[in-house]
Amino acid sequence: MVAHSRMTVGFDIGGTNARAAVVDRDGAIVDSLSTRTPHDAEGLTQMIVEMVGELRAQHDIGAVGVAVAGFLDPACEVVRFAPHLAWRDDQPVRRDLEAALGLPVRLEHDANSAAWGEYRYGAGRDLDTWVFFAVGTGIGATLMHRGEIYRGAFGTAPEFGHITVVPGGRACSCGKQGCLERYASGTSLVDCAIDIATKGSFKDSGVYRAVVEKRASGHDIMAAARDGDQLGLAALESFSTWLGRGLAIVADVLDPAQIVLGGGVSEDADLFLLSAQRSMEANIVGAGYRPLPEILCAELGSRAGMIGVADLARELL
Ligand SMILES: [Zn+2]
């Protein structure tokens, strides 16, 4: 069929940058664009229209997919709440975009989009009951069962990042305290380092001053750990212990055969995977009397969301 040779566009819209990729039927990116994310709803729509227009001038585009970092309704028609994007209050984003573009549009949650990309073209190929667990600025997760994304009744499942693991603990951007993502995300590496440094440990560390003056980023701490810096390594150990507890919760609740670790932090998994696995084994219920989920690393990196949502949009051709 002619329609299947057409390309689709996948958007990944973050709070700072928006990226778009033209994806072919084999999941390969043949062209891409990126820009700053506008901070108003009209600007967002206009940005998508302009980027699709630019890509359409070069490629035969049949449908558009948009990965959104926020809550959608289970039918993926409206954006209920996206903390870093201007769409909200049940705006019918999918319908509005279709009208503006004159093309079929598929909306999807960003973690679900990346999970779908890994399922079709990456580490999740041929897996049956598995969880995609993305560790980046925050934590996003998707449960996939027999080729279907599990959404829950209201479209928000599963929100492992905001499970309370320390009552009264670190403040979270969601308004709660002590959420898992405040202990086991890329940004939490900074908090782990601050907690250790303010106890007066590792004063001769290369990142000590930047940490206590709160200038260090998660990337700085990870880089320090990679260089063997003692404060960096201690922060990473705290992070990976918490990550393992998080993975144990995932296994206890959902019992997946595999957990695919994605997100920006997973690119440094060689530094913490063993430690996180040990922590998972120490915290899982029935350890020693049950099979453990296999922990795999994602393969598509930061392109997973665009490839996944472009592939989902292909169903509209
Ligand atoms: Zn939270």
Automatic annotation (TrEMBL):
UniProt-listed Pfam families: ROK
Gene3D superfamilies: 3.30.420.40
Superkingdom of this protein's organism: Bacteria
Stretches of the chain forming a coiled coil according to its record: none
InterPro entries: ATPase_NBD, ROK
PANTHER family xref list: GLUCOKINASE, ROK (REPRESSOR, ORF, KINASE) FAMILY
Family, as annotated: Belongs to the ROK (NagC/XylR) family.
Protein name, per record: ROK family protein
Species for this entry: Corynebacterium wankanglinii
Lineage, highest ranks first: Bacteria, Bacillati, Actinomycetota, Actinomycetes, Mycobacteriales
